[in-house]
Design a protein that fits this description.
The protein has 405 residues and is of the alpha/beta class. The chain is built from 15 helices and 14 strands.
Length: 405
């Protein structure tokens, strides 16, 4: 089954073309990125497997034009990977927010589109773009089946005590204000991948997955199901991130707003775009830049890294307490997969509950799957590379096969 995977952002589209022969077997045919949608100098970067990469610059006024460029690229005589658009069996879409509507991925119907639209207020930067991708495919390939895969659906198994906020209950009843969690496709994927690597039974286990990148979250998983997660009503909650503040006393924000006469939009900008590593250092939101500055002795960069690492450690400890123990801790995401110093700091002084890092294995684990716990460690520690596009393709394959039965 040839599946086109689309991850539509507000001004970009990530894509992959996969040939899925089963849930466990696939071949990547091509991947790429459309950037600067809405501008005259938009860029398509197309990387077909086994062929030279291809870059094309032109005006890309909207998502339909961007997706049309992708379709043209994958059937191009020189750079293409399929002979005809008729070879595409389905399109899978990443959708940021499914609210309480979706506990699983879903085949796109009129009702599903309406439910995605009803979550626009919950994810104003992502859901409108995700829906644009679905509508663009309807326009360009009207007979193709589509599947929506939601960042939030994996976390719909959380018990109420872990997702209800201690504010007047009417705000949950009227506005559905609650913890939703994000990065669900990644947490689900790496938990299973790490179990395959270690031999742990995901259906009889307590796992903590740490998706650590520019956006970051930690999830507690019991027997394969999300039990708690660090991101909340929005992705700003929880860990320190590239530009997001994570956990902060709300009264501190009210105090700042009053002192600096900030509007609600400016407060939102403060906590989403001007905080985190960037706010702490005034250097960058990129951990690589922060690490370089720290190595040169920059005090605020050193402090930022200590704060960043300690917040991850706090969530691991609290989730181990919530679950009554932990069998495995998994690191993934750009920082989680590549930054050994963060993993070492997070795992240091954790021997008291059986978590012992193999420092040499940790240093060698750069962007690859690896077990980095010492042989005597009771808690397995794993680096697992994530692949959210593969999860989307797998869910698309699974649902369409089930629907055809």
């Amino acid at each position: 089954m040839i599946i086109l995977v689309l991850n539509c952002g507000s001004s970009s589209i990530k894509y992959q073309v996969m040939d899925m022969t089963s849930l466990t077997e696939h071949k990547l045919l091509a991947k790429g990125l459309v950037e600067r949608i809405g501008l005259t100098d938009g860029v398509l970067t197309h990387k077909p497997t086994g062929k030279p990469a291809y870059e094309y610059v032109k005006s890309i006024p909207d998502h339909t034009v961007g997706i049309n460029l992708i379709l043209n690229a994958i059937v191009d005589e020189q750079h293409g990977v399929i002979s005809s658009l008729n070879d595409i069996n389905a399109v899978g879409h990443r959708v940021a927010h499914g609210g309480e509507y979706f506990t699983d991925s879903a085949i796109v119907t009129q009702t599903v589109k309406q439910q995605i639209e009803s979550c626009f207020e919950l994810a104003p930067l992502h859901n409108p773009a995700n829906l644009k991708g679905i509508l663009a495919i309807e326009n360009l390939l009207p007979t193709i089946q589509q599947v929506a895969v939601f960042d939030t659906s994996f976390h719909q198994t959380m018990p109420q005590e872990n997702y209800i906020y201690a504010i007047p209950y009417k705000y949950y009843e009227e506005y559905r204000i609650r913890r939703y969690g994000f990065h669900g496709t990644s947490h689900k994927y790496v938990a299973q991948k790490a179990c395959n690597l270690t031999g742990l039974d995901i259906n009889n286990s307590k796992i903590i997955t740490c998706h650590i990148g520019n956006g970051a979250s930690v999830t507690a998983i019991i027997n394969g199901k999300s039990y708690d997660t660090s991101m909340g009503f929005t992705p700003v909650d929880g860990l320190v991130m590239g530009t997001r503040c994570g956990n902060v006393d709300p009264s501190a924000l009210l105090y700042i707003a009053e002192k600096d006469d900030l509007s609600l939009n400016k407060v939102s900008d403060l906590i989403n775009k001007k905080s985190g590593l960037y706010g702490l250092t005034d250097i960058s939101s990129d951990m690589r830049d922060i690490s370089n500055a720290a190595e040169k002795g920059d005090d605020r960069a050193i402090l930022a890294m200590r704060i960043f690492d300690m917040r991850i450690k706090k969530f691991i400890g609290s989730y181990a307490a919530e679950m009554g123990g932990v069998d495995m801790v998994v690191f993934t995401g750009g920082i989680g997969e590549h930054q050994s110093s963060t993993r070492e700091t997070v795992c240091s002084n954790m021997e008291y509950f059986g978590m012992i890092l193999d420092k040499e294995a940790n240093k060698d684990a750069f962007g690859k799957d690896a077990i980095i716990s010492a042989p005597e460690s009771k808690v397995k520690i794993v680096v697992a590379t994530t692949n959210e596009e593969l999860v989307i393709a797998s869910d698309t394959f699974r649902l369409l096969k089930k629907n055809a039965e």
